[in-house]
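User: Can you recover a sequence for this backbone? Please restate the input before giving your answer.

Assistant: Of course. Working from this structure:
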């Protein structure tokens, strides 16, 4: 997947996240090789992560955030809806498909 195939806001968010990861690495005076060793990947993969390439693993991203003590920051990325957080059943409106689910009329095969 190329970064240019993402919507512009998503592309920018990935680039900014990569820049923040690089800033954390530089602040600790870790080289790319040292960071790669800690993440158990290649320096090329660390470069891709810091560049905000969308093809890098989410697991690797989380591992990098964990190394910097920032793994908990993901809780604010997509907080659970209030009803779900309150352990209540969330119902959708009758006749509407759940978000992200194709209806029969939308299928093209």
């Amino acid at each position: 997947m190329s970064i240019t195939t993402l919507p512009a806001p998503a592309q920018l968010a990935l680039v900014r996240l990569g820049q923040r990861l690089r800033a954390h690495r530089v602040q600790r005076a870790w080289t790319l090789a040292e960071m790669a060793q800690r993440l158990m990947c290649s320096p090329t993969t660390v470069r891709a992560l810091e560049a905000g390439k969308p093809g890098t693993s989410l697991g690797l991203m989380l591992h990098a955030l964990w190394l910097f003590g920032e793994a908990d920051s993901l809780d604010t990325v997509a907080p659970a809806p209030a009803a779900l957080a309150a352990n209540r059943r969330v119902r959708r409106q009758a006749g509407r498909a759940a978000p992200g689910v194709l209806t029969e009329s939308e299928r093209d095969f």
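That completes the design. The two ends are 24 Å apart (CA to CA).
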